[in-house]
Amino acid sequence: MKYVLVSGGVISGIGKGVIASSTGLLLKTLGLKVTSIKIDPYMNIDAGTMSPLEHGEVFVLNDGGEVDLDLGNYERYLNVTLTHDNNITTGKVYSKVIEKERRGDYLGKTVQIVPHVTNEIQDWIERVARVPVDQSGEEPDVCIVELGGTVGDIESAAFVEAMRQFQFRVGRDNFVSIHVSLVPVINGEQKTKPTQQAIRDLRSLGIMPDLIACRCKLPLEENVIDKISLFCHVGPEQVLAVHDVSSTYHVPQLLENKLLDFLKTRFKLDQISISPNHVNAGSVMWNSWKLLTSGHDRLFQKVTIVLVGKYTHLKDSYISVIKALEHSAMRCGRKLDLQWVEASHLEASMNGTDPLSYHRAWHLVCSANGILIPGGFGSRGIEGMIAAAQWARENNTPYLGICLGLQVAVIEFARHVCGVEHATSEEFVPQSDEHVIVYMPEINKDKLGGTMRLGLRPTIFQPDSEWSKLRKLHKNSKEVLERHRHRYEVNPKYVELLEQKGLTFVGKDEKAERMEIIEKRDHPYFVGVQYHPEYLSKPLRPSTPIFGLVAASAGLLDEFISSGEPVEWTDVSHFNAESALADSSESVEVTSQATIVSTD
C-alpha cells in the first residue's frame, strides 16, 4: 500500500482538497486503484451539526455518514464510493481511545496522546486504506490522506505527530508528503517567504515534504521556483506551480508531468503489476477528462440559473450543487451562468429596509432561465423561497427544489392553489393547525447529531407516472437510489388534496408512505425531490434531476427526451467537437479565474 499525505500551510482553504483529488485522479490514469481519507482536527464526531456558513457543505455518503465537503471532491474526481470511516475527526479518535480505556484494553497503562492517540490514528488509516471503494471490489493500491487545517495549529498537533511516525511505519518507498503553500503577489512580485516559513514549520515537526505545491494567481516564475527549491531543500522538479485556472477540473493537467514523474520513481511503479484492464480504463478516463475540460472552455452559449439559498455568503455551502450544475451544463453544451440570491432579499419586508437588494434579487429571479432552491434548515428566508417558487410555478420558469426546496414548493402550492391559507412547516411554526410539512415520527427531537433520515435509499416511481419528465429522463425506471438528509416530510394528510389540485407525487418511498418526488404536469419543468441528487453527480455522469432543470432552462429538455439519449456521457469526443463549433455570434462571457478553495 502506498500513501500520499497532503498538508497545508500559511492559510486554511488553500486548495488541499482539489490537489489531493487531482493527485488521486492522476494515479488512477496509470491503472492504480485509489482511495482517500480526510482528517479534520475538530472535536466534533462528524460535520452533521456544523453550520454551513462556518465549515461549508455537509456531504452525505451512501452509508449515511455526514462528512467534510472534500469527500465530495474525492468521489467526483475518483469515481469511488467512500464511507464515514474515510473522514477522521479528533472527536472520533478520542471516542475510540476512551472506549478502549473503559474496556481495559490498555492494561492499566496511563493513556496518553503519544503513543495511544497517535497509534489509534495510524491504525485507523491503515485499516480504512484497505477497504475497496470502487466497482472492482479490490483492495486499493494507493491512499491519499489529506490533513485538514493548517500545519502548526494546536488542533492538528496529534495528527501531525501520527503522520511523522507513520512514514517510518510504512517505509520511505511507500510514503510521499505533498505540502500546499501560498505564494502571494505583493506589488507585482511573487513572494516566497510564507512558503519558506511554512516548510520550516513542517520540517520542525519531523515531516520532510517531498513535493511543494505552490498556490499562486499566475504561473510561478522560474527564479521563484529556483528560490523555493534553494531555501526549502527540494529540487526544482519537486516544486509544483498551481496557479488559478478557469475551472478546478484543469488542475490535474497542471500537476500531470512533475507529479507523476516523481511518484513513479518514489513508489517504483514500474515494479508493480497492474491489470491491463485497469491501465486501459485509466487511459480512457484521462482522455475523456481532458476532452471534457477543454470542451468546457470553448462553450459560448449561456444558461442562467438562479440559486435561491440561505447560506449564499459562503459559496462552499452549496459546493456539490454548484458542481452538479456545472456537470449538467456541460452535458447540455452550455456555459453555466450561476446567479446567487439570498432568500431573505425576496421577502416583502426587505423592500422597506433595503429596497436596492430587494429589487436586485427580484430582477435576477425574474430574468433567470431556471430557479433552484437547495436544502437548508431554519425559518430565515423561507418566505422569500416561497415567493420564488410561486414565481416559477405561475410563470412557467423551470424549477427544481431539493429537500427544503421540495417542502417550500409544497407549502406555496397549498397556500395559493389549495386554499390552505396558513400552510407552513412544523420546523418554522411549531404551533399551527395547518402543518403541510411535519417532523418524521421516528426522528429524535432532542438529539440532533446523526439522527436524521440519512444515506442511500430507494424512491419508487408510482403507477400512472409514465408522463413524468423526470421519470422519462430516468429511462422509465421503476426506482432510483439517492442520498437523503432530512428531518421533515410532507404531511400525508394533505397528499390527496395536493394531488387533486395538480401537484403530483410521482415518487414515494418503498412503503409508499413518504413523499419523495413532486412534479407538475402542465409545466416545462416543475420538480421537487426530498433527496439530495447533487451528492451523486459526476463530471461524466450528471445528476438526472439537476440535468432536467438545466436542459429545460436551456430549452433542450423535450428534444433530449425525444432523442432517447442517456443523461450520462457515452462519447465525450462529440462534446469537444460540438463545443468548438458553438455559435460564436453569442456574446462571450468573460469568466473570472477560479480560485481553488477548500474550507477547513
TrEMBL record:
Catalytic reaction list: UTP + L-glutamine + ATP + H2O = CTP + L-glutamate + ADP + phosphate + 2 H(+)
Pathway info: Pyrimidine metabolism; CTP biosynthesis via de novo pathway; CTP from UDP: step 2/2
GO molecular function: ATP binding; CTP synthase activity; identical protein binding
Domain Glutamine amidotransferase: 314-542
One Pfam family per UniProt: GATase
Any GO BP: 'de novo' CTP biosynthetic process
Enzyme class per UniProt: ligase
Gene3D superfamilies reported in the protein's UniProt record: 3.40.50.880, P-loop containing nucleotide triphosphate hydrolases
Source organism superkingdom: Eukaryota
Enzyme Commission code: 6.3.4.2
One GO CC term on file: cytoophidium
Keyword terms of this UniProt record: ATP-binding, Glutamine amidotransferase, Ligase, Nucleotide-binding, Pyrimidine biosynthesis
Residue stretches making up the CTP synthase N-terminal domain: 2-267
Functional description taken from the UniProt entry: Catalyzes the ATP-dependent amination of UTP to CTP with either L-glutamine or ammonia as the source of nitrogen.
Protein family according to the UniProt entry: Belongs to the CTP synthase family.
Protein name according to UniProt: CTP synthase
Protein source organism: Schizosaccharomyces octosporus (strain yFS286)
